[in-house]
Amino acid sequence: MFFTPKISVIVPCYNAAKTIEKCARSVLVQDYENLELILIDDKSRDKTPDIIRKIAAGDARVRPIFMSVNGGAAAARNAGLDYARGKYIMFCDADDYWLRGMASRMVGEIRRWRVDLAQCGVKLLNAGAGVRRVEKEQMAFVSHGNGVVDLDEKAYANINSVLYNKIFRRRLIEKYRLRMPLQTTSEDFAFSLAYATLCRRVSFVKAAIMAHLFQRGSLMDLREAPDKLLDILSAVSFALEFARRWRLRRWERYLDSLFTHYALLNLEGFEKELDRKTRGRKKAKRKPRKRFTPPHG
């Protein structure tokens, strides 16, 4: 019998009653059956816990976790990592869904090419508006050995910040005791940056084999706002400290320059925001001129 290593699929859920069933079903119907689906309810206020119990009752591969307090996505994912038993780790958001062949393709990439990380394309769906775009940052690597490259700075820069389009080796995560920092946004960026410092080879898969729901006001959208650059700085700082702790000197200089890059962006964004507020105050203080009315007579 052909051996298929187990995948642990970690899904943090908060008030996800409208989407979690579709998400879970897309994972459980994959042609790659040796997986465990870890659904973590982050103290939801809707019917998410009941739906998770229902899903778990229908499939023995589902392992539910119910958080005692609402700790955010990072804390929920960390709980999932503590609970995971698979050889490989994949993450999924509660409003994502996998397309056919996602699991087998990603496991095939990491096993066939003996890479430490594989990253695939993504269909980004605008809420209620269909397909928004397909990420193309990995397209440049298609000609490099079927997308398989040794990890240099160019390849490192093409590992995007999200978790939902990647497969990781749990052995590396546990060996280096890697968990996500407990911050509101960019915790996925911190984890991806830190994990990448442990990789020797990576695979960039051209195909978009999963779908992510993009909503205005979501954390993904907010990350691009100027006031979220501080969280990005924290993420880079986390990865830099991780590299220093484990003496991964190859990446210290790169991450240090990346930190400087985002620090300058943060300063630029702060100056623009300050200038906008200053102009707004001056405009508010300016009194409107009285219109001249000639005397009658």
Structure overview:
This protein has about 300 residues and is α/β, with parallel strands linked by helices. It has a domain at about 1-95: Spore Coat Polysaccharide Biosynthesis Protein SpsA, Chain A (Alpha-Beta Complex). The protein has ten helices and ten strands. The chain has helices at about 20-30, 50-60, 75-85, 100-110, 155, 170-175, 185-195, 220, 230-245, 250-285; strands at about 5-15, 35-40, 60-65, 90, 95-100, 115-125, 130-135, 150, 165-170, 200-215. Strands 1, 2, 3, 4, 5, 6, 7, 8, 9 and 10 form a ten-stranded mixed β-sheet that branches. α9 packs antiparallel against α10 (about 250-285). The longest helix is centred in the last third of the chain and has 37 residues, at about 250-285. It is globular.
Spell out the blueprint of helices and strands.
Blueprint (H helix, E strand, L loop, with lengths): L6 E7 L6 H9 L6 E7 L6 H11 L3 E5 L6 H11 L4 E4 L5 E2 L3 H11 L4 E10 L3 E5 L13 E3 L2 H5 L8 E4 H6 L11 H10 L4 E14 L4 H4 L6 H17 L3 H37 L12
Parallel strand pairs: 1-2, 1-4, 2-3, 6-10
Antiparallel strand pairs: 4-9, 5-10, 6-7, 6-9, 8-10
Ranges where pLDDT stays below 50 over 5 or more residues in a row are: 135-146
Q: Termini separation (Å)?
A: 108 Å
The total count of strands amounts to 10
Structural class by helix and strand composition: alpha/beta
Report the CATH architecture of the domain at 1-95: Alpha-Beta Complex
What's the CATH first level of the domain at 1-95? Alpha Beta
Mean pLDDT: 85
What's the total helix number?
10
Percent of residues in helices: 40-55%
**CATH-level-4 superfamily name of the domain at 1-95:** Spore Coat Polysaccharide Biosynthesis Protein SpsA, Chain A
